What does this fold into?
Amino acid sequence: MDLNDYKYYNNRELSWLDFNFRVLEEAYDAANPLLERVKFLSITSSNLEEFFMIRVAGLEEQLQAGFGGMDISGLTPRDQLMKISQKTHEMVEMQYKCLESELLPSLGKENIKVLKVNEIDEEKKEFLDNYFQTTVFPVVTPMAVDQSRPFPILPGSGINLGVELEDEKGERLFAFIPLPTIFPRFINIPCTDGTCLFLTEDLLKMHSDLFFSGYKVIEISEFRITRDGDLSIDEDDARDLLIEIESSLKERKTGFPVKLEISKNMGKNLRDFLVNALSLRSDNIYEISNLLDLSSLMEIANLEGYEHLKFEYYSPQPSPSFYGKEDIFKVIREKDVLLHRPYESFEHVIDFLRQAAEDPQVLAIKQTLYRVGKTSPIIDYLIKAAENGKQVTVVVEVKARFDEENNIQWAKELEKAGCHVVYGLVGLKVHAKLLLIVRREESGIRRYVHMSTGNYNYITAKLYEDIDFFTCKESYAQDVSALFNILTGYSKPPTWKKLGVAPTSLRETFLRWIDNEIDVVKKGGKGKIIIKVNSLLDVSIIKALYKASMAGVKVNLIVRGICALKVGIKGVSEGITVRSIVGRYLEHSRIYYFENNGLPKLFISSADLMPRNLDRRVESLIPIEQEDLKQRLIDVLNLYLKDNFKARELQPNGEYKRPTGKKSKLFIVQEELMKEAKKKFRKFIKKQEVDKFNFPKLK
It folds into this structure.
């Protein structure tokens, strides 16, 4: 049996599109609150935009270069682009069917109305005219196209208005009006009942004559260009990586076009002019029946005053391990601690860093930062630590895609405060989530470590599901210290005591534990593997899982997004199940379970099972060895395998379907984890014998 055969693997890009279809299902699902459905539809659009900017752009480059090689599923770049176009056109049709047939009518019933020009009365028109004259008109810049002014390089992802004009001689001309991005897309008009919204592009259309006085406007219609967004950085020749990335960021706005969205009603002259100027193939053109750029629907999803149309508010619960304890270091000295966010609060991670910044016994802090966000208490406390005289070293990954500008800004702020800043490594992205605190104590120097599956991002910590791990065990601390020495200086990788580290040993570690399960079965034991990741693409790992299934090992995979592995192949993958869960929180943690003949091995990791994670990133695999924490992770995995509503199971034909079988009761894992976190904390509070007035106030 040749496991290199193309028939055993799904295509990466088509698998990702299948994931985005699962997100779209949430927009259709009437069981979700209305504004959450709007939010899911918005997410499908922003997901698709990024997919075209990076993945489709890469395939287009391969096609232009004449590359005809095949991917692991046997498809050439041309084959993939053809199938992507077919599937994306189907997705776009479903997106707008959802918007027009379900969401807009439902919003109208809740008195949230997106008004058209013919629905504006005199009072509303007066408001809009005033808003246009005082706010919008001074900002907008029309752009003519003629012999002296060639077709402008319109920025990608924004909305533009294409205008066909006629001069006094009857000659046809073309011009463009880019929509200003500094204003909301939806203008909130005062109205007596509910919320009345009006699109900025419709406002510009209403006043188009003011931009082109002396010319007759024949047609004005919106369009949107998606451009190549992958940065081309020559890291080996870059004298200063920071300057090189800052320079490359400008190219993102002017990359070659990969997709054109136009209004369905756009006239032939304007359409032909655009298509010819952009040199796009017909399968990269999408005719849109309603408002372009559905990602802007997030403005509606975030409207205030409509909490009844959103998920019931959930406040991440304090951890019983940390709650009410003034000395976090003492807690970690007593035992390792695990947090499961957003069910438990990320505030404990921030408190850990805050205490380190303020504690006179702390000598040094070292941290990796991948995606931090635009506002960050993490940065504030790192700066405070430096100001308090501590040695602060921060590895800021300035190549984190679409977060480059934020990270460059934070890197400069940290440097200004006196922190030692490293901008990642040449040829590798630093994706491991690590925080090391060095403290002077009576017994000598002790190191405290925080490791995580998720970013140090205060905002996404409330939206993404992740696992945090705290320890001060010397074996972990030695490995993390050694890893920082590699990242910041010249140091060869050691023999790791606890961690698995990419790109040196992570793939081999995974393969070794999979092989161990096969050996257990061969010796008459029971083999079992449970893996929860975002993506599964690495061929060597998939082959190993196929071999495990062929040997009789039971394999349960929880893969949120891309999955190149196929299930149900006779004699190959009959013992493998794959499920994907999409819910109110983005599933983001990576958990690895190996039965190990009754002595389970549990790991958490920053790494997915993709070649980029295993070969081109610095990642960490963290063994969880404390028995109560191991059992907690096992319980969490079992809950994910129990979900019978939000879960979708991969079928042998490549489709994803809801689990079949009798459902005496709906079981939604994310809701169950919220309930459990609340129950656990309430139970803890009831057991306290100390004066409750000494405890922090509950939210």
Q: What stands out?
A: DSSP finds 18 helices and 27 strands in the chain. Residues 500 and 621 are 5 Å apart (CA to CA).
